[in-house]
Amino acid sequence: MSDLDRVVVLAGGLSHERDVSIRSGRRVADALRGAGVEVEVRDVDATLLPALLADRPDAVFPTLHGATGEDGAVQGILALLGLPYVGSSATACRRAFDKPSAKEAVRAAGLSTPDWVAIPKTTFRDLGTQAVLDAVTAALPLPLFVKPARGGSSLGATAVHTREELPAAMVACFAYDETALIERHVSGREIAVSVVDTGQGPHALPAVEIVADSGVYDYAARYTAGMTEFFAPARLTSAEAQAVEELAVRAHNVLGLSCISRTDLILGADGTPWFLEVNVAPGLTETSLLPLAAGAADLDLGVLYRDLVQAVAAS
After folding, report:
1. Contact between 158 and 169 (Cβ < 8 Å)
2. Residue 15 annotated in active site
3. Active site residue 279
């Protein structure tokens, strides 16, 4: 049994990833209850803060995805209230959630990340769509990958193989964010490495290899059972496994993250791991990558989540 009295799991919010957040929250709550923890699940609305202040929990476990849970806003408020929570500081969340900022930070630290450009929607209006796209394709050779600068779950993300596909990819991207990240497509195996810290320092869980049936790990492939094949642990040599795990832990540290993160990367044919992005609130649904990694490490999810909560409650 746990010596924690009560934990509040935050799930829902108003981002495009609300449904995924609710599923993550339900799974975390069930796992914690299985580990002997009393859990209350709450949405992020006008009743939340009064309820937290009226009956302060031992800790809060946010499972909020997208802007609601990853841009640091909720984390900042929880810190102001003096409530321990599982996750990174507001400052670290903001840095990691903004993909161009995260890429700049990890490249400055010596990690490999594909070349990119971040372009606000207003730039196309001010300078002309054709001229801007011509400048992009002149500087970044095809194929490319276009995705929102701030967001997750591959919403608004598109692989671009021809110049003619680029305008539609931009439109899809701008449906979810005002700034597009356009990066060079790096071929290789798609790998995700989760990092957890239960009080003894951050360490990587076994890497997970992702093979989408459609060839693209998009929203449907992420959250529809059977559309993607996962290998946990990934089919890597010991040297490759060490390289991707070291990259994930370094990214976690460089960005000042805490408790939990997941780094998405491409492992090139030459063995180079390429950082794509990091998630400060990784999905915790039944098809999500961190639970798969924990299973590959023979970790009980309820115990892992309980240990994360206990670590922040005791700090």
Report:
1. yes
2. no
3. yes
Q: Which of 17, 58, 98, 218 is catalytic?
A: 17
Tell me whether residue 17 is one of the annotated catalytic residues: yes
Q: Among residues 85, 217, 223, 305, which one is catalytic?
A: 223
Could you list the pLDDT tens digit for every one of the 315 residues in the chain? Answer: 457 889 999 999 888 788 989 999 999 999 999 999 999 999 999 999 999 999 999 999 999 988 778 999 999 999 999 999 999 999 999 999 999 999 999 999 999 999 999 999 999 999 999 999 999 999 999 999 999 999 776 788 999 999 999 999 999 999 999 999 999 999 999 999 999 999 999 999 999 999 987 666 666 666 566 778 999 999 999 999 999 999 999 999 999 999 999 999 999 999 999 999 999 999 999 889 999 999 999 999 999 999 999 999 998
Tokens of 137: 């394709």
Q: Angle at Cα 50 formed by Cα 47 and Cα 53, nearest 5°?
A: 145
pTM here?
0.92
Q: Which residue has the tokens 């040599």?
A: 237
**DSSP reduced 3-state for 240:** helix
